[in-house]
Hints:
The protein has helices at 52-60, 82-89, 110-118, 128-134, 151-163, 181-198, 209-214, 249-254; strands at residues 10-21, 24-36, 41-45, 67-72, 75-76, 93-96, 169-173, 201-205, 217-222, 225-231, 234-236, 261-265, 274-278. It is of the alpha/beta class.
Amino acid sequence: xxxxxxxxxxxxxxxxHIYRAxxxxxxxxxxxxxxxxxxxxxxLLGPSGAGKSTLLSLxxxxxxxxxxxxxxxxxxxxxxxxxxxxxxxxxRVALVLQGGHRNLLPYLTVRDNIRLAQxxxxxxxxxxxxxxxxxxxxxxxxxxxxxxxxxxQAQLAALCVGAAAAPGxxxxxxxxxxxxxxxxxxxxxxxxxxxDALGTTILTVTHDPTLASxxxxxxxxxxxxxxxxxxxxxxxxxxxxDGSVPLPDDVLDELPPGTLLRVQRDPDQEHLRLVVEPxxxxxxxxx
Length: 287
Ligand SMILES: Nc1ncnc2c1ncn2[C@@H]1O[C@H](COP(=O)(O)OP(=O)(O)OP(=O)(O)O)[C@@H](O)[C@H]1O
């Protein structure tokens, strides 16, 4: 089995999304900058309502941004109209929705769900049986209909369907939600297998620290903005285009919104190092 499609890079810049609900506006994203390299894996973390699923569906092209740019590979997808984006997405981008069963047609077997997802693909697609064994499902699951599957089997089958067309980008919304520890490990292995075998870039929304730590990078979304990055175990803060720097949660606990901070360069340091201390209004004294 060979893949013809390289993983696709993702870059979003100054992304804003406003929902209009019951006559009032909800700003789900307020200027997100994010990039994922081709073939990379990234977990989007953040509290409920932070805007993670909105970001995923904008990248998938299911929703259109209010403002900002989305570039996948070398395509500015925010510039495509609805019909163009459907055609462009084709076998390039797959979205696995939260809840395995939602991704499967109920009247088809798992094998036929996979084959349907491969229909029309110009990529070198894996055999349905290979996909089923990669994700750790038993062979006989191929002939089952979704109603016969447990929640974890359905989630693994949904990943098979997502990976079926050998997409360049696989988006997965909470793929381990409400699964046991063993099933979670199986889903993580399946995602890593797809990433290794097909070179597919993987972007997943999750609340699950086990899944997040298995991805190469994590990005935390807070109140519709990027709050923090972590890469190779190093916590990173991101300077926003407006010059603001979101503080890590544990620091924010000590410095509630409205706290005045004094920011100085540390004179003893050769490299730029900022000293940040609460300001009590008296020169030379921190709080
Ligand atoms: N279709 C919609 N219409 C109006 N508001 C919406 C819609 N979808 C989401 N929102 C609002 O946008 C904000 C971001 O929602 P979103 O679902 O993207 O957050 P999330 O981080 O994925 O949350 P969760 O972890 O609970 O899924 C929330 O305030 C939510 O209520």
